[in-house]
Structures are given as structure tokens and as C-alpha cells.
């Protein structure tokens, strides 16, 4: 598909598959400013904070303080998808349940909470309340530490879930917190943050405007730290740590990722930070044997638009006649991160888009078949499996010598959020009547 054809399809809001022409199956990533060492550094920092997190958040007892989620086989959902799509899905289908992540209830808890913890550690070391990193990190729950951190402010721009993760973790540590939220953010997310003592600033404009305003306000305060979903390396490596734990989970279920049993992963994408970090980590862990795809709403395909035109953050979905509005509020982003787009050029296999009606169809089908609730944005990944019988996807398989091994492949749909959705909102989502495919 040429760039012009891709652009025409994006403008038509038809669901599509786009293959990344810059994808390099054996990319080494060695030239990037983010290294394996940085990911390991992040993993070790999260381990140091685990006793504190377990003490402050009892729901983390089962993971011993690590912010991690189950990897759940969903065979009934696979059967339902085969009926919906009218074709066979090879291999096993799993759901990576970041919808169940403790504290934040979404994938944003990985990178967002990690960056807040890193900032807290740096301040504590600077003021010598933390003398060295071998101390017991439960001291972060002390009144003395809370008083110190209350002199500092954490700020972030968000469509919802990143704001929740930053706000809840920062408030727990004692920081002053300001979350700049776009018009797309759900009212219940704003209300939840306010109940936690977070200052929520609302904007009538989209995500980019909220980020810009938040960054400007934070820059004016020397004791304020702005968490930048578009450009933060700390957020990125926080997300990337997911791969190590996933590798353990696959091994425990006797799933190997190699040339004979490739892995396909489908990740919902907004501005790009979380799926970019996860993809980077997965490529480090599994190399050429993992194939990562982003999935975006048909009305807000900002990363696909930026990468396919090679304009990255120099183009927005509104420039091609799309509104960027979607029920998948976490994906309601009009302009992508250039940092992530450039990083993904050799690593991302491609992208899919999904319509609003299919977001709800998959959300409801998963609940009925597996009794698992996820929010609309988290359901986007399932559409990646729809295109497996397409000529475009078959071209990808042939190009990368996967035709013979695809029957032994495994698939992971990354469920990015849902645990904190109020019951009333859940019922509305489950009762919405989407049109069939």
C-alpha cells in the first residue's frame, strides 16, 4: 500500500492494516539512547521500592510489591473471534491483563508510577533522607519523607489513565500533584483524582493542548517535575520492564518464543509512550521472533499517520479531516510522539485501526466469553487478529519467512485498562449495541 493509499484509507475511516516499510526483523537497537542497562536499572529500582509499595497498597501482596499483571489464556474468546471473523486463528490466544494492574488499573501504572518513584528517590538522596539505595525503602512511607516530598510538585498532561497513575502514586508519597486533562478525559477519572487530593485542571482542547499548558506551568516552578508522555525516557523504560516479567510468565506456561513458535503482540496506541516502551522491551527480550503491532481508533490513528507519512509530530489527524474523538479516551490523541515514532521505525511490524462499534463488540464479547471486563481502549488489540487472512498480512508472513511457522504461533492482546471503571459506567459499556462486523 502506497502512502497515498494509506492516507486515503485513513481519511475514509475504514479499518486497515499498515505494514511498516522500515521494520527490520533483526534490528539491534544498539544506537538508541535507551539501552538494556537502562531497562535493568529501572527493574532494579522497582524491586527496591517493592517493600514500600506492598506496605502502602495491600493489593500488591500477591506480586510481592511488583506492579505486574496476569497473562491469561482466553480460549473461549478465541472461539468467539473465529466466529466473528469467519476464519481460523492459529496458536494460543492470551490476554496480558494490565487492566488488572494495582494502584492505577491500567498500563500507565508501569511507566507513570516508575517515573514518580524515580523522582522521589532522587529527591530523597539529594536531601540525605535516603543515604544509599541499600536502605529499606519502606522509609518512603514515613512522615518525615512525606513532609519533604510535599515541598515538590509533580505535573502531567493526560487523557485519563496516565493522570490516574501519576496522581495516585504522587499523592500517596506526599507530592503536590497537578493533572492537566483534555476534554476527552472521563468525568469519573477526574472525580477519582480529586478525591485523592489531586488538582485537576480541565481544558476544552485536546490532549496536545493539555500537555503544552502543563509543561509550561511546570517549567515556571523550579520545584516542579513534568512527566512528559511524549518524550520521557523514564516513562519509556518503565514500560519496557514489562518484557522481563512476561518472559517468565510465558516460560511458566511452557511457551517458548523462537523461530519455530513466533509471538504476535497487539497493543493499543495513543501518543505512543506505553506501546513504544513495551515494544522496545519485547524486542530486547525476544529479538526477531516477536512481532509487535499497534492498534488505533479509525478517528484517531495519530501514530500510524505520523509513521506512514514520516512526518511524526509534524502532522495531526485533524490535518487530514479526522476529529480525533473516540470512546477509547486513552487513545484520543491527535498528534503522535516524534520520539516514539522515530524509535519504532525499525522495531514496529505495523499497525491496525479499529472502529468504535468494534471496540464495544470486543469488550462485550470478552466479558461474555471469559468474564473479564476491560475498557474500550483496551479492547482495540483484538482487531489485529481480524486481518490475519488478509493479503497484506500474508505478504508480511511471506516476507519474513513465517508462512510455515504461523500455525505454531502465539498471540497476546495487551489489555490496557479497566479495573477502576465504576459499575455504572461498566453497565453502560456492556449494554451498548454495536453493529456486527
Key terms:
alpha/beta, seven-stranded mixed beta sheet, four-stranded parallel beta sheet, 11 strands, 13% strand
Q: Between the first and last Cα atoms, what is the distance in angstroms?
A: 23 Å
Q: What is the tally of helical segments?
A: 16
Spatial shape? globular
Work out the number of β strands.
11
Structural class: alpha/beta
Average pLDDT number: 93
Along the chain, the helix and strand elements come as HEHEHEHHEHEHEHEHHEHEHHEHHEH
Proportion of residues in β-strands = 5-15%
- Strands ordered across the widest β-sheet: 1-10-9-8-11-3-2
Query: Level of helix content?
Result: 40-55%
Q: Stretches where pLDDT falls below 50 for ≥5 residues? A: none
Could you explain how this protein is built, in words?
Helix content is 42%, strand content 13%. With 437 residues, it is of the alpha/beta class. The strands form two sheets. A seven-stranded mixed β-sheet has the order 1-10-9-8-11-3-2, with helices on both faces. Helix 6 links the parallel strand 4 and strand 5. Helix 3 packs across helix 14 and helix 6 packs parallel to helix 7. The protein is globular and about 60 Å long. The relative contact order is 0.16.
